[in-house]
Amino acid sequence: MFSKLAYYLLVIPISLLPLWVLYLFTDFFYLLLISIISYRRGVVRKNIANSFSDKTEKERRKIERKFYRHFTDLLAEGVKNLSISKMQLKKRIHVQNRDEIDQLYIQGKNVIFVGGHYNNWEWIICAQNFLFAHQAVGIGMPMTNTFWDKRINLRRSRFGMKIVHAKNFKETLRQENGNPISLLILADQSPGDSMKSYWTKFLNQDTAVAFGVENIAHEYNYAVVFLHMTKVKRGYYNVTFELICDLPSEMQYGEITDAHVKSLENDIYKDPQYWIWSHKRWKREIPENLEELRKRQYEKFIQRYLS
């Protein structure tokens, strides 16, 4: 009952306020974050220090402050996302090389848009279905609170995005036919099982990466396109696409995963403040038998997809 009252009496009315008004609230919250409230500051500092060991303490603190500045902007934009109009999203998200995606659609090619929690991914989720001709599909894990899970997903899908559960998304992909799909995957979360992960270097650290993008691409013959999102100014973003492959069968084991990890890494190195440093990204322990694990994973992949 409390969740329902909070949603209808507080969150939705606040989301109807102009974005510039919401920014006033989050400007104040930003001041609290950098002075009084210590929201995951230890996690943020550790992640930045490990990723930028070549930078001075002063430089790392500057990244930290800019991150919290952007983080509070995302809070305002996230609340606004519950009620923002299609017209406003079209105004605030500019796609620079749409022709490449249109060409894949004309070819009848299903696409994986792979990205990370970098800049405003929530607006992309909401706008994807009307920005491109492909039928937009998103894979998500349900929230603990079933009321919020249902409401948030209804808001995310109000412009046509189809959201499917991570446990049964393959069934959805098999059933889809006709209109080509664009499947959005944010691939920078920490995987659930270190023994089933692809291990690679990311931001100077051994990192477990979910292998889902590569598996789906090979199993269903999806093109893989990295989604770059840059912040033009407060509340305005540019989107560009980088084709990783349109024929997965021609890619070797790990090639797709290494490519999208490197693309995200390059974006972070360019503008580090726009990645979510408060996420516990490196909580998985490195397997003791890592080389043996890699060998088994390679052999299994070759047998399944390339033999």
Topology diagram in text:
Blueprint: H1 2-15, H2 19-35, H3 41-51, H4 57-80, H5 86-92, E1 93-95, H6 98-106, E2 111-115, H7 121-131, E3 135-140, H8 146-156, E4 162-165, H9 169-175, E5 181-186, E6 198-202, E7 205-209, H10 212-220, E8 223-233, E9 236-245, H11 255-270, H12 290-306
Parallel strand pairs: 1-9, 2-5, 2-8, 3-4, 3-5
Antiparallel strand pairs: 6-7, 8-9
Helix pairs in contact: 2-4, 3-4
Structural description of this entry:
With 307 residues, this protein is an alpha/beta fold. The chain has one domain. Helix content is 50%, strand content 18%. It has 12 helices and 9 strands. It has helices spanning 2-15, 19-35, 41-51, 57-80, 86-92, 98-106, 121-131, 146-156, 169-175, 212-220, 255-270, 290-306; strands at residues 93-95, 111-115, 135-140, 162-165, 181-186, 198-202, 205-209, 223-233, 236-245. It has a 7-stranded mixed sheet, with helices on both faces. A two-stranded antiparallel sheet has the order 6-7. Strand 8 (223-233) and strand 9 form a beta hairpin. Helix 2 (19-35) runs antiparallel to helix 4 (57-80) and helix 3 (41-51) crosses helix 4. The chain is globular. It starts with a helix and ends with a helix. The relative contact order is 0.14.
Can you list the strand order of the major beta sheet?
A: 1-9-8-2-5-3-4
What is the makeup of the main sheet? 7 strands, mixed
Radius of gyration: 20 Å
Tell me the strand percentage band. 15-25%
Secondary structural class: alpha/beta
What is the first-to-last residue Cα distance?
55 Å
Number of domains: 1
Shape call: globular
